[in-house]
Amino acid sequence: MAAADISLSDQITLRFARKRLFAFALPALVLAYLVYTAVAFDLAGLAQRARMDNAAILLSDFWSHKTHITRDNRTGEVTAAVEGEAKGAYPAGTFPDWVRVAGDVTTIDLGTGHVVTYDSTGARMVVPGYGTIDIRPDGNRLLLTAPEPLPDWINASDTRVGVTTPAGRFNYTRSKVETFRYQAGWELFFFTLDSPFSGKSVTELAALALWGDRIDPARSNIGYMLSEVWTNKMWRHADVAWALFETVLMAFLGTMGAAIIALPLGFVAARNFNPLGPARFAMRRIFDFIRGVDGLIWTIILSRAFGPGPMTGALAILITDSGSFGKMFSEALENIDEKQVEGIRSTGANGLLRARFGVIPQVTPVLLSQVLYFLESNTRSATVIGAIVGGGIGLLLTQAIQTQKDWEEVAYYMTLIVLMVMAMDSLSGWLRRKLIKGE
Amino acid sequence: MVDIAFGPERGKRPDTASTSDQYLAMVRRKRMYGGILLALFIATMASGWVLADSRNAGGFWNGILNVFDFPSEVLTEAWEKRALIPGLFIDHVPSLIETLNIAAVATLLGGLAAMGLSLLATRGLARWPALIPLFRRSMDALRAIPEIVIALVLIYILGGGPVPAVIAIALHTAGALGKLFSEVAENADLKPVEGLQSVGATWSQRMWLGVMPQVAPNWLSYGLLRFEINVRASAILGFVGEGGIGHDLKLAMQWGQGRYDEVVAIFLLLFVAIVVIDRTFDSIRHRLVKGN
User: Is the ipTM of this complex over 0.90?
Assistant: First the structure.
C-alpha cells in the first residue's frame, strides 16, 4: 500500500511539474518568437523610418481643411482656393471673410493675433509673443528680417522662407507667396464655391428650399440643391455612392454565384449521395485546388482576361468561394439525418425528388447561414479585391491614398467603408434571424 | 381523441374533412412565396451580372475566351525555363517566411487582444459588466475596418516593410477572434469561477485558472483557423502594399514577359504553403475539438 501511495503521489508531482514547465515554456516560446520577429522585421529601424510629420498631416486632414491664399509674385495676382485645388477655388476677386484685399495690399487674419500682409515690397507675418517676420525680395535672394535667434519653426534659406505656426503656415519663394489657414470641418462637403447655395447657413438653405424664390426657374430649389450636392466636384458624392454600390454588388454576385455553383458540386462530393469514390475524390481535390490557389491569384488571372472592373472582382470572389462552399456544403450534406430521406424514398421518389424534399429542407438553414456569413465577409474582401481589379470603393480609396494629399477623402471613404460593412453585417444578421429562425 | 369526441358543441369541432384542403392551400401559398422570392433573386442576379459586365473594361464574352491565354502564356515560358524554377524557389523562400511571420505575429497579437476583449465582453465573466456594450461595439468596429485601409494608411506613416501589415491584420484579428472567443466563453461553466471567487481569487486569476482551461481547446482551434486566413490576407496585403511574397509577385507580374518563370515559382510556393498549412492545421484542429 505504502509503495503504491508513494508512486501515486510521485506521479501526480511529476504531472504537476510537467504542467508547470509547459505553462512557463509556452509563453517563453511565444516571447522568443516575438523577439525573433521583432529583429526580422527591423523594429529598431522602424523608429527612424517612421514619419511622424506625415502622421500629423494625416490626423489634421482627417478633421480639418486648409485654405490657400496665394500671390503670384510675377503678376501680383492673389487667389484663394480650398486645399489649393482648382475645384475648390474661390471665384476670381472673391475671398473668405478673413482676407481683405485693397489694391496691392492683402491682409490675412489667421486668428489669435497672427496676421499676414502681402504688399508690393514683399510680405510680413506678425506672430504674437515673437514679433514681425519681414521678407522682401532682393535681386535673386530673399531678405529675411526677424527677431534673432531664429526659432526652429522658421525655415529660412536664400530662396525659400517657411513659417509654421499653430494658426497656419506661410511660405515665401521667389515665384509665389502662400499662406495656409487650417480650419475644422470638411469644407465644401455639400456645395462647391461655384454653386449658388455655397456659404449659406442651414436656416437660409431651409428657407430657400421651402418658400424662397426659385434660383433656377426651370426647377425647384430643393431639386437644384440635391443635384448640386450629388454632382459636387470636390467630394464626388455620386461617384462614391456608385463605388459603394459596386463593391456590394461584387460581393453579392460573387457569393450567390458561388453558392449556386457549389450546391450541385457539393452533392457530387458527399459520401452519402455519390457512391463513386473516384468522382468524390476528384471533386474534393478540385475544391482543395481552388481554395489553395487563393483569391489573390484568381484575381490576377481573371483581371488579365476580363480587364479591370466589378465583374472581374465578382468572378474572382465566385471562383474562390465556390471552393470553400463546395467543401462546406458537402460536409453539411454528409451530416444530414437519413430518416427523412428514407421516408421520402418509401413513397417511391427518385433521386432528384429525394434531394429536393428530403435533403434541401434539412440543410437550408446551415447553408443559408454560411452563405450569409460569407456575404458579409466578402463585402470586406470586395474592398481589397476592388483595389486590385480597379473597381468599387477600394479603387477610390487606394487612389486617394496614393495621391498622399487628399487625406480628408481617405477619412471619408474609411468611414463609409466601415458603415457599409456594419450595414451588411446587420443585414445578414437580420436575414439569418428572419429566414432561419423564422422570427 | 377525447377532445374531438367530447369537444365543445357541434360545429366548433375541428373540421377534419377540410384539413387536407387547408394543408394544400397552405402549401400552395408557401410555394407561391418561394416562387416569387426565387424570381426576384434570379432577376437581381441577372441584372447584377449585366450591370457588372457593362461596367467592366473587357466584356464577359471577350474575356471568357481569353481566360486561358494568360495562364498558358505564363506556363509555356515557365516550361521553357523550368530548369531555373528550383533556384527561384530558394530565392523567394525568405519572402514566404516573411509573409508567414506577418500572419503568425498578427495572429498572436490579435489573439492575445481578443482574449482580453472577449472576456471583458462576455456576460457573467466581465470585469466591468456595465462596459460590455462598449467592448462589443469596439470589437465590431475592429472587424468592420478592412485590413487594407489600415495597412495603406500605416505605410504612409511608418514607411514600407512588414510592420504596417502586422498591425492591420492584428487589429482585424482582434475583432474577429474576439467575437468567436466570447461566444465560446459564454458557454463556459461558471462553477470553477465561483469556486475561485470563494477563495478570494482576483478577476485575472479567476479567468486564468477558471475559464481558460475550459475554453483553451476551442480558442486554440479558432486561432489556428484564423492563422490560415491571415496567411492569405498577408499575401494579398503584400500585393497591394508592401512586404512578403505578395510584393515579389507584384514585381514579377509588373515585369511581365521574361519573368514568368518567377511568377510560376511564386504561385507554386504560395499554393504549396497554403495547402500544407490548411492540411496540418485542419488535422490539429480536429484533434483539439474532438479530443483525440
Answer: no
